[in-house]
């Protein structure tokens, strides 16, 4: 009975949990955080960002902010006139769609003079398929019976 319940549980898990998505949380700039005079291009260069990952901008409240911008606004450090700045000092951005993403600081000349700009490429979600459980293997061992023996009389 216990074996039957185990097999039913495994079958349900195989249907309900066919894929697992792994997400990573990155602190932008690592221990330096979101600050002036940091090379964010080098920081991002060896990282692979996927849909579902999170990037966290950490900085002192009131000193910096974060704007998501277009590629041309990123290049020219143009702060959007419409749009909301992220200002909590611990801004978590979930990467929801694949493609190029650009972020800048909109305070003073932090983007153009201080290098506070981040460009990343987000790839489609990394999905790992969970293999179906292997079928139980049973080794059927014949049990001896009287018919399988030859009897000799003296």
UniProtKB/TrEMBL annotation:
Protein name as catalogued: Phytocyanin domain-containing protein
Topological category with respect to the lipid bilayer: Single-pass type I membrane protein
Subcellular location: Membrane
The keyword Translocase belongs to this UniProt entry's keyword annotation: no
Keyword terms, alphabetized: Copper, Disulfide bond, Electron transport, Glycoprotein, Membrane, Metal-binding, Signal, Transmembrane, Transmembrane helix, Transport
Domain Phytocyanin, first and last residues per copy: 24-124
Highest taxon in the source lineage: Eukaryota
């Amino acid at each position: 009975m216990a074996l039957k319940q185990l097999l039913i549980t495994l079958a349900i898990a195989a249907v309900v949990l066919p894929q697992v998505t792994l997400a990573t949380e990155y602190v932008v700039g690592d221990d330096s955080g979101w600050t002036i005079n940091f090379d964010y291009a080098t920081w991002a260069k060896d990282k692979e960002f996927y849909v579902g990952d999170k990037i966290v901008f950490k900085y002192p409240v009131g000193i910096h902010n974060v704007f998501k911008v277009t590629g041309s606004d990123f290049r020219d450090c143009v702060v959007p006139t419409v749009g909301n700045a992220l200002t909590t000092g611990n801004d978590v951005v979930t990467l929801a769609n694949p493609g190029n993403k650009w972020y800048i600081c909109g305070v003073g000349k932090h983007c153009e003079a201080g290098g506070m700009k981040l460009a990343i490429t987000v790839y489609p979600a990394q999905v790992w398929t969970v293999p179906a459980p292997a079928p139980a293997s049973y080794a059927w061992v014949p049990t001896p019976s009287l018919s399988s023996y030859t009897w000799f009389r003296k």
